[in-house]
Each structure stands twice: as structure tokens, then as C-alpha cells.
């Protein structure tokens, strides 16, 4: 007799519900190394991310976490719960905003609301899911929002 096996995966198209808040945990504490590595890997030489002396003289008083790292991490935090192994493709992003900065040592938490679901007209067995992602820091301040459209697989027959 073999043990029952459960494989972690995201949700099939049919499992998504609109107007439900999906909280993604754990959060991710952002380090200086994360920010500097991402910033240099992507050739973003913005002094606000790399130059502590320069950043100290700005209104923020310190370096900011690269907003593209914030966005990437926000989406990444949702993957295990929502799209791991079930996504076909990202179709696009819209309405991306960074209302407050994220700093070294801050923890980013993510939540997602599904705002729209529709079956694909051109790809049988798949559907379009629109997500509204929200990132908050450890104080509950909203630091990032993004609307993302994805193509997601429907449940395979026999599952």
C-alpha cells in the first residue's frame, strides 16, 4: 500500500473565485544584498538604489529598494498559492503603482484579489484570470499594487 501523495500546485482556472482575498505567506524581508544584486544585474545605476551617501541627502534619507524588485517579489510571493504549474503565460501588466517606498530591512507581504475570469476564446482548455496584487510592508502600508492578466490551464480531464 502506498501513501497518498499531494503535490503543491497553483489553482486550475475553475478553482479561482472573484472577490476573494488570497493572502500569501510568509512575507519576504528585503536585504541590502537583494537590492544591490537586483539593481546591478538589471543595469539600473540609479543612485537612489546604490549610493548611500547620495540617498542620505534625499527626502527619503536612505536608499530605496528598486521598484522593479518590489514588483517582481510581489508577484513571486503569489506563485505557490495561485499559479505554480498551472499558468501558461503572463499576458500583461497594468495599473502598476508604488505609493510608498520599501527600504532595506522591510518585510514585503502580498495579497491578491481575482477581479475577472473568462474562458479563452482562442485556446480551449485555458482561461484568462486577472489579478489585483497588493504589497504591504510590516506596518501595513501599501508599497505596491499591480493588475496582471494571465492565461491559466483548466483542470485536466481525469483530475
TrEMBL record:
<dbReference type="Pfam" id="PF01575">
    <property type="entry name" value="MaoC_dehydratas"/>
</dbReference>
<protein>
    <submittedName>
        <fullName>MaoC family dehydratase</fullName>
    </submittedName>
</protein>
<dbReference type="InterPro" id="IPR052342">
    <property type="entry name" value="MCH/BMMD"/>
</dbReference>
<feature type="domain" description="MaoC-like">
    <location>
        <begin position="19"/>
        <end position="133"/>
    </location>
</feature>
<comment type="similarity">
    <text>Belongs to the enoyl-CoA hydratase/isomerase family.</text>
</comment>
<dbReference type="InterPro" id="IPR002539">
    <property type="entry name" value="MaoC-like_dom"/>
</dbReference>
<dbReference type="InterPro" id="IPR029069">
    <property type="entry name" value="HotDog_dom_sf"/>
</dbReference>
Amino acid at each position: 500500500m502506498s501513501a497518498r501523495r499531494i503535490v503543491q500546485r497553483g489553482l486550475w482556472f475553475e478553482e479561482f473565485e472573484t472577490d476573494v482575498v488570497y493572502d500569501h505567506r510568509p512575507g519576504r524581508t528585503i536585504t541590502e544584498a537583494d537590492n544591490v544584486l537586483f539593481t546591478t544585474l538589471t543595469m539600473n545605476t540609479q543612485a537612489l538604489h546604490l549610493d548611500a551617501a547620495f540617498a542620505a541627502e534625499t527626502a527619503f534619507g536612505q536608499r530605496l529598494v528598486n521598484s522593479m524588485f518590489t514588483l517582481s517579489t510581489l508577484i513571486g510571493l503569489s506563485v505557490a498559492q495561485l499559479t505554480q504549474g498551472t499558468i501558461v503565460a503572463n499576458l500583461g501588466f497594468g495599473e502598476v503603482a508604488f505609493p510608498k517606498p520599501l527600504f532595506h530591512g522591510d518585510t514585503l507581504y502580498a495579497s491578491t484579489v481575482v477581479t475577472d475570469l473568462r474562458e479563452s476564446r482562442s485556446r480551449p482548455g485555458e482561461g484568462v484570470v486577472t489579478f489585483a496584487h497588493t504589497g504591504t510592508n510590516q506596518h501595513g502600508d501599501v508599497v505596491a499594487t499591480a493588475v496582471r492578466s494571465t492565461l491559466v490551464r483548466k483542470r485536466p480531464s481525469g483530475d
